[in-house]
Design goal:
By secondary structure, the protein is mainly alpha-helical. It is about 80% helix and about 0% strand. It is built from 5 helices and no strands. The chain is elongated.
Length: about 160
């Protein structure tokens, strides 16, 4: 199961990484339109905002999988693999999982209410899918929960292996 979770978050992480290139091009288009042609487009500006949301929300679990999150080095660096596995296990069990579950539980009604009214942009000419953007919040929490379970399994296996000989 851990392999499937890792693969899912790897694919999502790589996909949203490419989105950053599209966002950079969109920002360049916004600047060009504004300063070269005196035109303003809400649609492209909101597309960049949606892109940021996608990259941040769907990239969190990938970053966790790749061990790219900030951690307290005083508890982690220079320590034994067993100690690191214990820190990972504790952190995922007692910090990550409860917070991700809380975010999921509190954001789901928020996203569902946006879906009920198919909430769109309040700006004239804006993107109609605000409800999709709000769905990223519980999606991020669910992906973090899954990746957290995968990381717990990996830490548990490292502990079960015992010290390297």
């Amino acid at each position: 199961m851990s392999i499937l979770i890792d693969r899912l978050n790897h694919l999502l992480g790589r996909a949203v990484a490419w989105l950053t290139l599209a966002m950079a091009m969109a920002v360049a288009a916004i600047v060009l339109l504004r300063y070269a042609f005196a035109q303003n487009t809400i649609l492209i500006q909101e597309a960049v905002i949606y892109g940021h949301g996608l990259v941040l929300m769907l990239g969190m679990a990938y970053t966790l999988k790749e061990n790219g999150h900030v951690r307290v080095d005083i508890l982690y660096s220079g320590r034994s693999p067993r100690w690191r596995a214990l820190v990972d296990l504790f952190g995922h069990l007692f910090l990550l999982l409860p917070v991700a579950a809380l975010v999921l539980a509190t954001s789901l009604p928020y996203a569902l209410s946006a879906w009920r009214i198919l909430e769109g942009s309040s700006e004239v000419g804006g993107l109609p899918g605000v409800f999709l953007l709000k769905t990223l919040i519980p999606s991020m929490a669910a992906l973090l929960l899954l990746q957290g379970l995968s990381e717990i399994g990996k830490a548990w296996r490292r502990l079960a292996e015992g010290p390297a000989k």
